[in-house]
Amino acid sequence: MTQAIHNIFIQGPIPPGLVAESISKHSTKTAIGAHSIFLGQIRADQVDGKTVAAIEYTCNQDIALQQMADIRAEVFNKYELSCMHVYHSEGYIAAGEICFFVFTSAAHRKAAMAACEELVERIKKELPIWGKEIFEDESHQWKINR
Fold this sequence. Notes:
Helix content is 31%, strand content 38%. By secondary structure, the protein is of the alpha+beta class. β7 (129-135) and β8 (140-142) form a beta hairpin. The radius of gyration is 16 Å and the shape is globular.
């Protein structure tokens, strides 16, 4: 059986309306008892006395999407989930904007929460996604995940 490959990447920041729409679409799914949501937001970190104004994300999309399909299948097999939605930004994302959205749904909270946490950690660790910190003075450096 071939796995469906869903494109998780969005150009620019993740619009708040997408988050709200994702939540509202689940109101008719009455077997769901819990949702877990992670929203990653760009911080205005201080690095060597400079303030991060934005992060510019790039990725190897072909590899990332195949790895995401594998992670998706493994997480669905491990937890009793009803739904899973993942979005990650590409391109320039300003401080304060949302760059990463993970949304899991299940009959019970423990499955939804554990799956959401595992997805976030695995995506950050395993997918070939790189962030370049853009500072207020327009200098830049590759981001080190903290």
